[in-house]
Write a structure and sequence with these properties.
Blueprint (H helix, E strand, L loop, with lengths): L2 H44 L10 H10 L1 H35 L1 H16 L2 H12 L4 H23 L4 H9 L4 H38 L5 H10 L3 H29 L8
Helix pairs in contact: 2-10, 3-4, 3-6, 3-8, 3-9, 5-6, 5-8, 6-8, 8-9, 8-10, 9-10
């Protein structure tokens, strides 16, 4: 068999397989979403739940369409707080994690403090941030940073310390400098683990923004939920919650896409 025919056969086998994987990646989540909506609708019908307690999917969809410009504007405020806090957490957390992974003294000094900060319920911190920073965007961004910071640091340190000893010995035998070993071997080896922390943090980022909006805000989807609850407009509250779920999913899969583009060599390990 010639090389050309062998390559053709391999391509003919791989291409349908990739197509099937892509279709299943789209179809299976859609099946789950449709099933969840069907259960939601069925529960409201079977148990005759009043609309002012749990509105059905149709009522929520109609409310979402009717208030879409308003909800889109509020979603923009929440996304801005989320992304700003997430980026700041990366800018601060990743370099700090590199220092902790490089110097054991820093780990012994800072880890107890980081654990203490992470263990404090963020809902308890939100009113304090409101007093210190007012009703603007700043306390929401700080809340996002506080929620995202620890998982980013933890995953980065774990990734940097997971480099196989064989690779470290190889770079030493090639007379690589410590900085070269760190940036060209340890950092690249740690990137898959770092992205695990980032993907965990991005979902927490949305939660942090909403917590900040719950405590004190005049914009954002958290503000919409609070106001809707106060006026017993559950359909609008559910529409805002639905948008929050969509935002979380979109941001998460944007990170997944960046990971696949940046780390194609790690695809086989997932």
């Amino acid at each position: 068999m010639s090389v050309a025919s062998s390559a053709t056969m391999t391509h003919s086998v791989v291409a349908p397989r990739r197509t099937g994987i892509a279709l299943s990646a789209i179809a299976l989540p859609l099946v789950a979403v449709v099933g969840a909506i069907a259960l939601w609708w069925g529960a409201t019908v079977v148990f005759a739940v009043p609309t002012f307690i749990v509105p059905g999917p149709q009522v929520v969809a109609e409310t979402l369409v009717a208030n879409f410009p308003f909800l889109l504007e509020q979603a923009g405020a929440t996304v801005l707080e989320t992304v700003l806090g997430f980026v700041i957490a990366i800018i601060i957390g990743v370099p700090l994690a590199m220092l902790i992974a490089r110097y054991r003294v820093l780990e012994q000094m800072l880890y107890p403090l980081l654990l203490a900060i992470n263990s404090v319920p963020k809902v308890a911190i939100a009113p304090v941030l409101l007093v210190w920073m007012g009703f603007g965007i700043t306390p929401k961004v700080v809340m996002v940073v506080l929620l995202c910071f620890f998982p980013i640091v933890l995953s980065t340190v774990a990734g940097l310390r997971s480099t196989p000893s064989d690779l470290v010995e190889l770079t030493s035998s090639l007379s690589a400098r410590p900085l070269e070993e760190f940036t060209k071997v340890r950092l690249w080896w740690a990137l898959p683990q770092i992205f695990v922390g980032l993907k965990n943090a991005i979902t927490l980022a949305v939660i942090g923004a909403v917590i900040g909006e719950f405590v004190g805000s005049s914009s954002g989807l958290g503000f919409v939920i609070v106001q809707s609850g106060a006026s017993a407009n559950m359909a609008l509250a559910f529409a805002a919650i639905l948008l929050l779920a969509v935002i979380s999913i979109v941001l998460f899969y944007m990170l997944v896409l960046v990971e696949k583009r940046l780390l194609p060599w790690a695809e086989g390990n997932r």
